[in-house]
Each structure stands twice: as structure tokens, then as C-alpha cells.
Design goal:
The protein contains 15 helices and 15 strands. By secondary structure, it is α+β, with helices and mostly antiparallel strands. The strands form four sheets. An eight-stranded mixed beta sheet has the order 1-8-9-10-13-7-6-2. Strands 5-11-12 form a three-stranded mixed beta sheet, with no helix packed on it. It binds one RNA strand through helix 5 and helix 6.
RNA sequence: GGAGAGGUGACCGAGUGGUCGAAGGUGCAUGAUUGGAAAUCAUGUGUGCGGGCAACCGUACCGAGGGUUCGAAUCCCUCCCUCUCCGCCA
């Protein structure tokens, strides 16, 4: 099932970075240009074109590094000479030498400046290039090509026309989209009574399942983060328009914070810049958070109901592991997300993203799609992804394979476990009854204190 | 928000212009000693980049960014963060 990279992966291991291919660092790209181009072409021709110029820049950089370091070496040697002169107290000799060294020093500075500019240009280019698909990912042009891997649970049959969740929710008096719009505009929601309680129950239920049965450590992260954190996960620089940005006084504040689009961002960056010992892996975190998305470019889609909101709740599961464990960890994590649906008794299916449907940072992804009777369709409720070392490189998250060994980039994974708003609406739709009530899933009854939602009188 | 003190290697901590990638200690690793362990002694112990088959060599990094200087962990500027006291506050 898992084709392990392409043949050239083993031909010649790259010197400075991890051996796998899910990486876009300048050295790897310039040494395996055709191969990386072919991999990106599986996503789209446009993505492959993003590589243009990278190899040349990398080569230029190497030359400049060598030139500059040679100058630095000369300068350092000369400075040692000056130290000796200073000791001898020969002021005139020092003065003369100083003139000469000034020139050398200026040259060093020019080199250093040119080098840092070039490196900035390279990293700007690389930051805009998406991850390469894993060899096992099927080719495809749109999400319609995504293969269905399995269908789980029984799609409910109704002897009446099933209502949409917003109709059910409003009739029960637990959902009020009109008043939400009064407060905050379109794509916000307002829950009352059992509706609000259901939202809270789902968050608690999911966190309990992941922490007690799946071995995750619960994390409560900040809901606002720096641009740096978003760069680590791959949301920036390319997807700024999808985010809500906050500022204090100055709209152009360099240190402006962003509202998180998912807990993936703060939780993945928990270990940014760190070196983790091998015996600490895998690390597994589960976090509840609200998520904020501007939904730019989605006008006209899912305008009704709770499917697509500017603010929604989600429990996110995140894993850090050694590279060789990546594939197995993706299966494991996906299973954990699926368990939530199974425990709730919701009918769903699992699809795999084809190459063209992969998100920017992902090397392989599965979506869990829940059945929505009102739409007679499966809709995404969780996306489970393996990022290879793509995020780890951007956020500099490494581990030490051997106690004294060289650090290597680790692999990151995450998945929704699950999107709470969509779970909420799926429960209303799948468990709706002819009389307008909604059966509460067994697993939630203790939290909800009832087995049935009925209109508040 | 006001006043003050600080940010140095895994940790503690010295270092106010050249001999500092950085004393000393702790921790850790290896070896010696021991029946075994403790204690003791010796040696070693950061990361990135460039070169090299390698041993290794070079270079950069002492919160971040800029400046002064032939030369900056050390001097100057800006910013960030932490701590203490005061004020305010869920």
C-alpha cells in the first residue's frame, strides 16, 4: 500500500537534511530539481512552475557563502594581528593597519548584506511552494476524483421529508441565525438552551475520548497567534485573506496578532524551534478551540445554516512523530477521529484527497464526511493530514534519533476530531424525528441529561 | 499604565572592547576504581551553514534587529520578553 518514495531517494542521501522526500529545502530542490518538479506537477502545472529559479538562487547563494566566509576568515586573522599589535603598543603601526583593514571590513559587510538579501529572497520563494504529494496519493484533478475508501454506519431512512438542521434547530428554539446576524452579520450563529449545551457536551465528549482512550494530552492554547506561528503551519504567507487579523491602534502593526483558523496553528507550534529526544515521540495533543475564518472566496457557498461560519468550535488532534512512523501515524490519527463519529452513531464515509485536492501543507490527507439527509450528500466533518517534514521545517521542529546523534526534522500530523458545529448539525439532521424532536446519541445522554430534544414550551 | 531589575550553552552562573563558542558548577555520556552501587578521578558533551569520502577545517550564532569600531557577548539605539513594586482589572 505504501510505495516508499521514489528510487532516487536511496541513490544518494542528501548531506544535511533528512532522507525522505517530503521536503522543500533549497539544497534538496537544487540537487533533485527534476524529481521535485515532477512531484509538484502531480498537484498542478502551476505548482511545478513555482520551482523556476530556485536552483539558480541556491547555486548563487552557495558561491556567495564561500566568498563571504573567505573574507571573514581574512578579517578575523587580521584582527588577531591587531590584537598582538595593540599589546606591543606600536600606535603608528596600528594606525596604518587600521586603514587597510577598513577596506577589508567594508567588503565583508557588503558580502554579508548581499547574502542575507539573497537568503531572504530564497526563503520567500520556498515559503510559497506547496508540499509534494506522497507517492501513495492517487492522481486526480478535482475533489470529484477523490476515491471513497470506506463507508461506515447506516444512512438513516425517513418516512417523511427530512428537514435541514436550521429548520430543526429554529423550531426547537435552540438555534437563532437571524439574531446572530443582528449581532455580527452573516455566518455567525447563536445557540440557546439545549443547543448551547449540546455544543459544550460535544467538546467535552470529544476531549474525554481522545485523552482517556486515545492517549492524547489535553492542551488549551492561545486563540490569537503571531504571524510566525502561521508561517510554521503553512497558513502564511499565502493565505492571509482567509484569516482575521487584529491590531491595536495601528493597522500596519508588524506584530499584529491573528485569530487562529484552527488549533492546529498554536498546538503544532508548541514545539517550534525545539529539539525533542526520540523517546518522547510520538507526542499527541488534543485541543479544543474556537476557529475563526474569513471564508474569503466562498461567497454563495453554504450560505444557509451552520456549515460554513466565521466562527466555529473544533477539537483538534495533533501528533509529532519520527519520519518512518508517518504513514502509520496517519492511519492511527484518522482512526481516532473516526471513533468520535462511531461513538455518536453518525453515518459517514472516508475519502482520500487526490493530488490536486491536497491542501498547501499536506503530503497525504483523508477526509471524513458525514451524511446530511437534507442535502442527501456526505459533507466534510474532519480532515486528517500528514505533513511530512513540511511544517517541521518551517517551524524548525526537530528530534534526536540517537542519544548523541544529529537532530533531524520530525513529522507532524493533525486532524479534526471533530468540527463541533458540523457534528452538532449532523446530529440534528440524522437523528431528527417525524414529530420535530431529535434523539440524543447514547454517548451524550449523560452530559445532556436527556435522551431527546423537544421544543421548549 | 507608572517605577526599577534582568535576558549568556540542557540547567545555574562568570564574563564591560581583541587571547571568548565563551570560566566555574550542575546534569548527561564514556572510561578508571568497586563483588555491585554510591562517592571519587579522567575525558567528552550546542546548533545552522559552506567545504571534505572521512578525520576534520572554515564561518555564523551570548533575547531580536540596527549602529559605532580594524575588531562587539562586552559600547550606543530600537523592539520583544521575564521578574519585583505600585495602579487598574475578569
Amino acid at each position: 500500500m505504501w510505495a516508499s518514495g521514489s528510487a532516487s531517494a536511496t541513490d544518494r542521501p542528501p548531506r544535511s537534511f533528512s532522507e525522505n522526500l517530503h521536503m522543500l529545502d533549497a539544497r534538496h530542490v537544487s540537487e533533485h530539481l527534476d524529481e521535485v518538479r515532477a512531484q509538484l506537477a502531480r498537484r498542478s502545472p502551476d505548482d511545478a512552475a513555482l520551482l523556476d529559479g530556485v536552483a539558480e538562487l541556491a547555486k548563487k547563494r552557495r558561491e556567495l557563502v564561500q566568498k563571504t566566509e573567505k573574507l571573514q576568515m581574512e578579517r578575523n586573522a587580521a584582527s588577531d594581528g591587531m590584537a598582538a599589535l595593540a599589546k606591543s603598543g606600536d600606535r603608528e603601526a596600528m594606525q596604518a593597519r587600521r586603514e587597510e583593514l577598513k577596506k577589508l571590513s567594508d567588503e565583508v559587510k557588503r558580502g554579508e548584506t548581499a547574502l542575507s538579501e539573497l537568503e531572504a529572497a530564497i526563503s520567500e520563494k520556498l515559503l510559497g511552494i506547496p508540499n509534494v504529494p506522497h507517492a501513495s496519493v492517487p492522481d486526480g484533478k478535482t475533489d470529484a476524483d477523490n476515491p471513497v475508501l470506506r463507508v461506515v454506519g447506516e444512512v438513516p431512512k425517513f418516512d417523511f421529508k427530512p428537514k435541514a438542521h436550521w429548520e430543526i434547530g429554529e423550531a426547537l428554539g435552540i438555534l437563532d441565525l437571524d439574531r446572530a446576524a443582528k449581532l455580527s452579520g452573516a455566518r455567525f450563529s447563536l445557540l440557546f438552551g439545549a443547543g448551547a449545551r449540546l455544543e459544550r457536551a460535544l467538546a467535552t465528549f470529544m476531549l474525554d475520548l481522545h485523552t482517556r482512550e486515545h492517549g492524547y494530552t489535553e492542551v488549551y492554547p492561545p486563540f490569537m497567534v503571531k504571524a510566525e506561528a502561521l508561517r510554521g503551519t503553512g497558513n502564511l504567507p499565502k493565505f492571509e485573506a482567509d484569516l482575521f487579523k487584529t491590531y491595536r491602534g495601528d493597522p500596519n502593526d508588524k506584530d499584529a496578532l491573528y485569530l487562529i483558523p484552527t488549533a492546529e496553528v498554536p498546538v503544532t507550534n508548541v514545539h517550534a524551534g525545539e529539539i525533542i529526544e526520540a523517546d518522547e515521540l510520538p507526542i499527541a495533543y488534543a485541543a479544543y478551540s474556537p476557529c475563526f475564518r474569513s471564508e474569503a472566496g466562498s461567497y454563495g457557498r453554504d450560505v444557509r445554516g451552520l456549515i460554513r461560519q466565521h466562527q466555529f468550535d473544533k477539537v483538534e488532534i495533533v501528533r509529532f512523530c519520527a519520519p518512518e512512523d508517518g504513514p502509520a501515524q496517519l492511519e492511527l490519527l484518522t482512526g481516532h477521529a473516526e471513533n468520535v463519529l462511531k461513538r455518536l452513531g453518525l453515518a459517514y464515509r472516508v475519502v482520500e484527497h487526490v493530488t490536486a485536492d491536497l491542501t498547501f501543507s499536506s503530503t497525504k490527507s483523508y477526509d471524513l464526511e458525514v451524511w446530511l439527509p437534507s442535502q442527501e450528500a456526505y459533507r466534510e466533518i474532519s480532515s486528517c493530514s500528514w505533513f511530512g517534514d513540511f511544517q517541521a521545517r518551517r517551524a524548525q521542529i526537530r528530534y534526536r534519533p540517537e542519544p548523541k546523534g544529529k537532530p533531524r526534522l520530525l513529522h507532524t500530523l493533525n486532524g479534526s476530531g471533530l468540527a463541533i458545529g458540523r457534528t452538532w448539525l449532523a446530529i440534528l439532521e440524522q437523528f431528527q424525528q417525524k414529530d420535530g424532536s431529535v434523539l440524543v446519541p447514547e454517548a451524550l445522554r449523560a452530559f445532556m441529561g436527556t435522551e431527546r430534544l423537544v421544543p421548549a414550551k
